[in-house]
Amino acid sequence: MGTSRCFRLAFLLGSVLMVLLIILYWDDVGALNLYPHDPHDLYPHDPHPHPTSPSSSTPTKPPPRDTEEGRRATPKPPGEEHPLPQVTDSSELEERWRGEEVKREEERVRQAEEEKREEEGRRQEEGRRQEERRRRISHMCSGNGTLEFPGKFRTFDQIPNRELNHLIVDDRHEIIYCYVPKVACTNWKRVMVVLSEGLLAPDGQPYRDPQALPPDLIHNSSLHLTFSKFWRRYGRLSRHLMRVKLQSYTKFLFVRDPFVRLISAFRNKFQQPNEDFYRQFGSVMLRRYGNESGTSRVPESAAEAFEAGIQPSFSEFVRYLLDPQTEQEQPFNEHWRQVYRLCHPCQIHYDFIGTLENLEDDSDQLLRILGLEDQIKFPPSNRNRTAASWERDWFADVPAELRRKLYSLYEPDFELFGYPKPETLLHH
User: For residue 384, what pLDDT band results from cuts at 50, 70 and 90?
Assistant: First the structure.
């Protein structure tokens, strides 16, 4: 009985001892796994090594110095030679994108404001230029103006109806246009026809594109309502209606350097076969002044004259204009009649005076003033336009005395519309 009890007691103590040994052994193994001496050996793929346990008695090896030798001696963990791009948080990307979008919008706003200021500056400058042109005409037409010319002080009612045939009226848009031949009048007549819807296209609808109008119809007088036709329409009320429209409608005209306009008219009418102008004017010039240039017989037609090489010269054209007999027989043709006689700027106060020298910009500005810039576009201008630089060549055979007389004849146009006196041309 005592032996059995001793055996059980010994077994129990042995079991307890075994358990204690197992616990102690397990504790040592766990410490080895949890706190290794060299973290690179146990975690070869971890780019961020774990710190060494403070309880470890093995000292930590210091990292190699930041030298070329140290960098070569220290191998980089796999994958670190080519690091993956840094992944940015989606909220950070969105914030960055919004910032860039705000910057772009601010730049767009800045550019729009700058363009608006530039446009306002241009319009103010254009307004000042128009005001100066109107002021100049007003001064020249007043009693303070020193230049005298026919019709300067007559009233509008004293202008005969036949002299109002260049004032085209568009009642739909409340516009009055005084056309001046050889000053872009063909294209402005195109615009007026389209605006008034006075001509139907082959499809039965009014023309919408000025360039689509048939060229041979542009100058057909039946397409345009002019002041000279008011008498037939309204009888004794015609003058009253004219005055009402002149007060409320927008009135405009375009002008050009007077001498350059004369050169353009001569080129167009006498340097190419034109039967009407040859019979009415060209043959007259040759008969009056042809003997001095060696012309013995005057051809009957333009075709015959051009075939024989017989044409009036520009010098003969100038002499024809200065000859008192010319206007005794008939008034100047509209292509060389002075602008002040065509458009009567001393009796009609024009709201807009454009120039051929600045045709495109002035036309765009006028269409903006009329509120028509989105409705119609001014047609492209003629690229074969007579240039002001040609004056010296064209007047080379014209004696200086005739040049000065010609200037006196057209001086009102020079002064009224602000064109400089061609001093060099007149004195050399």
Answer: low
Task: Judge whether residue 49 has pLDDT over 70.
Answer: no
pLDDT of 41 above 60: no
> Does 409 score more than 90 pLDDT?
yes
CA angle 23, 27, 31 (to 5 degrees): 170
Give the mean pLDDT of the chain. Answer: 84
SS (H, E, C) the chain: CHHHHHHHHHHHHHHHHHHHHHHHHHHHHHHHHHCCCCHHHHCCCCCCCCCCCCCCCCCCCCCCCCCHHHHHHCCCCCCCCCCCCCCCCHHHHHHHHHHHHHHHHHHHHHHHHHHHHHHHHHHHHHHHHHHHHHHHHHHHHCCCCCCCCCCCCCCHHHCCHHHHCCEEEECCCCEEEECCCCCCHHHHHHHHHHHHCCCECCCCCECCCHHHCCHHHCCCHHHCCEHHHHHHHHHHHHHHHHHHHHHHCEEEEEECCHHHHHHHHHHHHHCCCCHHHHHHHHHHHHHHHHHHHCCCCCCCCHHHHHHHCCCCCHHHHHHHHHCHHHHHHCCCCCCCCCHHHHHCCCCCCCCEEEEHHHHHHHHHHHHHHCCCCCCCCCCCCCCCCCCHHHHHHHCCCCCHHHHHHHHHHHHHHHHHCCCCCCHHHHHC
Contact 313, 293 (CB under 8 A): yes
User: Which has the minimum average pLDDT: 54-63, 112-121, 255-264?
Assistant: 54-63
Are the CB atoms for 311 and 282 separated by under 8 Å? Answer: yes
For the cut 60, the answer to whether the pLDDT of residue 31 exceeds it is: no
> How many other CB atoms are found less than 10 A from the CB of residue 278?
25
Q: At residue 44, does pLDDT exceed 60?
A: no
